[in-house]
Amino acid sequence: MLAQCTVVVPTIGRPSLDVLLDALAAAPGARPAELVVVDDRPTGKPLEPDRPGLPPVRVVRTGGGGPARARNLGWRTARTEWIAFLDDDVVTDPDWYERLAADLADLPDDVAGSQGRVRVPLPEDRRPTDWERGTAGLATSSWITADLAYRRSALTAVGGFDERFPRAFREDSDLALRVMDTGSRLVRGERWITHPARPADRWVSVRVQAGNADDVLMRRLHGPGWRDRADAALGRRPQHAAVTAAALAAVGLAAARRHRVALAAAAAWAAGTAEFAWRRIAPGPRDRAEVTTMLATSALIPPLATWHWLRGVVQHVGVPRWRGLPDLVLLDRDGTLVHDFPYNGDPEWVRPVDGAQEALDRLRARGVRVGVVSNQSGVARGLIIPDQVDACMKRLDELLGPFETVQVCPHGPDDGCACRKPAPGMVLAACAELGVDQARCVVIGDIGADVEAAAAAGARGILVPTPVTRREEVAAAPQRAASLPDAVDDVLAGLW
């Protein structure tokens, strides 16, 4: 089973990554097919996580896109049936490999994911701090990707993690709800990890209030009952809103010289803030550092939580369901990737259009597979021979490759084949070769036959017109872009 599993670890280069890698290297038993470490730092010295005992290691970089994008890049570049996600600040048990294999073995087809079990050790010599108690909540959380294995097909079906969640908060719950919306189930396994309560500065509880905007996005996407489905408590947001309203009322009434009423509002704010602070102080160590931190942050959290919630209400209006990136982009050759020299058989005349290399590199950098589908009727017409087509394709690969699939139709328009565009044969063959659902495929070309082939195959077509593209083809195209880079921009923005 582990031979069909890839472990994906997104990281921002924390020292805790070394602790996790040491645990994975020291554990006995069979290894997964691969360990993909996703470096989500904008810059920095390349990571060197390889060490004896680990599975084959591959490092990929996002350039700093956040945890959702990092996980997406990890699973998109993997080719196994299962993807096991681990956070970079957890430690796997010594028998984790063995139990992962047992958890995934013989699962019914309707089970899309298996969650590991989490322990959060708390101090034994003192009461835990507010931050440590919050971290301890991970032990009972549902569908967190600190340790969660998904079928790759389930991730593909829903487009992976929604990258509109910019932080490590709610993006895993959102994915779980979308996967379950397909009719699949998620189960709990018997493997264990330890999630230490890592040290944090005194203002961490203030910064995490930005997650209130993500809660609004969850409601927009999944409706008012999302908390019950995701097993997510409401928390104190209503109380925070009331305390904030009391503070604003006190300021406004004082400015209006209504001092008695302003005093009453201020008293309500003070009482609400004191109650909140005490609820955080009482179960904690109650030392000077913790008490002063709780007093300061308890005054700041209610207005910040309310502000971020209101920001989310404004920001997340009319958001569509996440579609993610396509799994495969197929491109026409002549007129789209390279300048069109009719019936070209000379590799020297294979000349990329402006921006082609950068556009393809951007697709590959996001884990999108890239291929070519090309009509070459010059073979049927006797104008070129197959060896010349092969030589030109080899030159194309040298200039713009690698391509994961190359489909060529040598037939003429009157041959009645199933592969020549606008027939769907080459698109279907490319998808079948790579195991991609046609609905997760985009075809980019310069004439109507390209987008018609996409539609016939159940894929999405984008037309990039050139001077030879007929007006009626432009008018009929379901989606158009001014250039190949613009078409790729649309794909990467989810506009496909």
UniProtKB/TrEMBL annotation:
Coiled coil spans: none
SUPFAM superfamilies with a match to the protein in the record: HAD-like, Nucleotide-diphospho-sugar transferases
Domain (Glycosyltransferase 2-like): residue spans on this chain: 6-127
Pfam families linked: Glycos_transf_2 (PF00535), Hydrolase_like (PF13242)
Entry keyword ATP-binding: no
Compositional bias segments (type: Basic and acidic residues): 41-51
InterPro entries: Glyco_trans_2-like (IPR001173), HAD-like_sf (IPR036412), HAD-SF_hydro_IIIA (IPR006549), HAD_sf (IPR023214), Heptose_bisP_phosphatase (IPR004446), Histidinol-phos (IPR006543), Nucleotide-diphossugar_trans (IPR029044)
Region named Disordered: 41-65
Chain ranges passing through the membrane: none
Alphabetized UniProt keyword annotations: Carbohydrate metabolism, Cytoplasm, Hydrolase, Metal-binding
Family: Belongs to the GmhB family.
PANTHER family, alphabetized: D-GLYCERO-BETA-D-MANNO-HEPTOSE-1,7-BISPHOSPHATE 7-PHOSPHATASE (PTHR42891)
Protein name from the UniProt record: D,D-heptose 1,7-bisphosphate phosphatase
Species name: Blastococcus carthaginiensis
